[in-house]
Amino acid sequence: AAAQLAEIDDFIAHLPDGYDTRVGEMGSLLSGGQRQRLAIARAILRDPAILLLDEPTSDLDPVTEAAINLTLRRLARDRTVIAVTHRLGAIQQADEIFVLDRGRLRHHRRIAPTVPTGRCIRPGSDRAPTPSLT
Predict the structure, then answer these.
(1) Which fold has domain 2-85?
(2) Domains of the chain by residue range
(3) Cα(98)–Cα(120) distance, integer angstroms
(4) Interval 16-62: pLDDT, tens
(5) Measured in Å, how far apart are the chain's first and last C-alpha atoms?
(6) pTM given for the model
């Protein structure tokens, strides 16, 4: 079920040894998107109270990204999810948004269901301002 929710079950089914296939140290034989989806499946299996995601859809094609975002929305119903992301699609259902710029908090807003998320994003961009730690 976790592999299905993470949109990785078809890929696993086509591996030579299915779930027993070796994928290299730290998934070195997988694409970035495959590693992301496996990590999400592992997180689903652990069923944490707090789920921390770092760019959860960064290496995914648009169709898989939309499916993963839907899965993450379902997961967020029963837990706290903290997502670090530059992608608008990953935060559209957020309750609160924090925007960092050069390592400093520049914007924080509790989002009402009727407030468009795009108000926290640069005009003409689908990405939040790029944070920097320098």
Answers:
(1) Rossmann fold (3.40.50)
(2) 2-85, 94-134
(3) 9
(4) 999 999 998 988 999 888 888 898 899 889 989 998 888 888 878 88
(5) 41
(6) 0.68
